[in-house]
Amino acid sequence: MRSSIPLYNALAADYDVHFEVPHRRAYDDLAWEFVLPFLPDTPGQIIDAGCGVGRWAERLVALGHYVIGIEQTPARAAAARNRWQTDRFRLVERSIEEVEPPEGEADLVLALGSLQYTLDPEQIIEYFAHWVSPGGSVVVLVDSLVALVLELIASGKDDEALVRLQSRMGTWVLDGQQADNHLFDRERLENAFRRASLTEVCSKGLLVGASALGRDELTGRLTNDWEAQLTLERTLAQSPLLADLGKQLLVSGRRRRL
Questions:
Q1: For FRET with 90, which of 83, 192, 219, 238 sits at 20 to 30 Å CA-CA?
Q2: How many CB atoms lie under 10 A from the CB of residue 165?
Q3: How much is the mean pLDDT over the chain?
Q4: Which pLDDT belongs to residue 177?
Q5: Structural contact between residues 69 and 51, judged by C-beta atoms closer than 8 angstroms
Q6: Half-sphere exposure of residue 245, counting CA atoms within 13 Å on the CB side?
Q7: Which residue in 105, 150, 99, 108 sits closest to 127, CA to CA?
C-alpha cells in the first residue's frame, strides 16, 4: 500500500477548509451527531485514532473530556499540537499500529477516516477493542465500497468500478500524491467487530443521497435547503438496509461489561 503520509502532509494546511465542501461538511456533521450518544456522561478518556489536525479532539475537549490523539503525519500532528493549549489533550505522534495505550482504560475509541489506511484493519479493530474499557464503545468511519462502485459506474468508469469491487482497494489522488486505502462493506466491518468480541454492533450509511442522486445533485440539494436534506439523510441512515449505500460507513460496537 502507498502510504497516506505524503498526501495528508500536503493537505494539512487547509484541512479545515476541506470540510467546508457541502457533502463533506454534511457527513462530518452527521458523524458527530451519531457519535454524541457514545460519549460518557461525565468527563472521560477518549482515544482519537488518526486525530488529524485535531478537529474532533477540539470538540471533545470542549465538552470536558480527556483526549489521546494518535497521528502519524508530521504536518497534521504539528497542526494538532498548535491548535490550542490544554492539559486535556495528549498527542501521540506515531502510527496506530505502533501505539500501545493503557489497555481497557478508554471510554471511547474513535477512528474517523483513519482505519482504511492501515495495513491490517481487522487487526486494528482488535487493538481498539482492547483499548476500550468494559462497557465502552468503538466507533469507526470509513469509505463505502458499494457507494464508490456505484459512483464510478454512474461516471462511466466501468472498468475502474470492477477493479475496486474485486480488489476492495481504492486510491486517493491529490496534487500529485496518491494514497491507497481499504474499501469496506457493512458485512466485513461488522464481522471484524464481532470477532473482536464487540457487541451491540450497529451500522449507519452517511449520505445515502450521494448514491441515489449523484454528488452534484446532492450538493445542489444541500446548498438549496441544508436542513431538509440533512433531515432526510438522518432518516435514511437509521436503516441498516441502506448502510452500504452511504458515501461513508459508520460502525459502532461495545465491549462487554465484566
A1: 192
A2: 15
A3: 94
A4: 82
A5: yes
A6: 15
A7: 99
In this predicted structure, the answer to whether residue 182 has a pLDDT above a threshold of 80 is: yes
Task: Name the one residue in this structure whose C-alpha cell is 462487554.
Answer: 256
Q: Are 14 and 209 in contact (CB under 8 A)?
A: no
Q: Specify which residues 48 forms β-bridges with.
A: 69, 110
Residue carrying C-alpha cell 479532539: 57
Q: Say which range, 12-16, 41-45, 146-150, has the weakest mean pLDDT.
A: 12-16
Cell of 53: 489536525
The distance of Cα 91 from the centroid of its chain, to the nearest Å, equals 18
Pairing state of beta strands 66-70 and 89-92?
Answer: parallel
**Strand pairing class (132-143; 169-174):** unpaired
Q: How far apart are CA 152 and CA 155, in angstroms?
A: 5
Distances (CA, A) of 232 to 5, 46, 249: 35, 30, 17
Model pTM?
0.95
Residue the block writes with cell 457487541: 199
User: How does DSSP assign 226-238, residue by residue?
Assistant: HHHHHHHHHHHHT
Grid cell locating 94: 506515531
